[in-house]
């Protein structure tokens, strides 16, 4: 299994990148995600992408499998600057 533990600085960096890509304020996105609400993130996605995202986050095994792929690890490293 991939080590998905991030320090607070890494989490803030990733949150900033995702919020910019989705066009959602970082604080709003963070609050919603902490509360388990994905509405603000999903409203700016294509319907097919939102459906895939919902399916993945509702299935821990699927999420773990996705995050352990080389592509997901490479994307994570790119988004966080390899930190």
Describe it for me?
By secondary structure, the protein is an all-alpha fold. Helix content is 70%, strand content 0%. The protein contains six helices and no strands. The longest helix has 15 residues, at 8-22. The two termini are 19 Å apart. The mean pLDDT is 76.
Give, in order, the helices and strands.
HHHHHH
Please, what is the oligomeric state? Answer: single chain
Report low-confidence residues grouped into runs of 5 or more.
none
Distance between the termini: 19 Å
Approximately how much beta-strand content do the residues carry? under 5%
Residue-averaged pLDDT, rounded? 76
Secondary-structure blueprint:
Elements: H1 8-22, H2 26-34, H3 39-42, H4 47-57, H5 60-67, H6 70-80
Condensed summary:
This protein has about 80 residues and is mostly helical.
Sum up the structure in keywords.
70% helix, mainly alpha, 83 residues, single chain
């Amino acid at each position: 299994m991939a080590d998905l533990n991030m320090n607070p600085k890494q989490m803030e960096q990733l949150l900033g990148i995702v919020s910019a890509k989705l066009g959602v304020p970082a604080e709003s996105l963070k609050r919603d995600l902490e509360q388990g609400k994905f509405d603000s993130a999903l409203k700016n996605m294509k319907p097919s992408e939102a459906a895939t995202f919902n399916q993945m986050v509702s299935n821990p095994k699927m999420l773990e499998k996705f995050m352990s792929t080389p592509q997901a690890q490479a994307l994570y490293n790119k988004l966080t600057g390899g930190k």
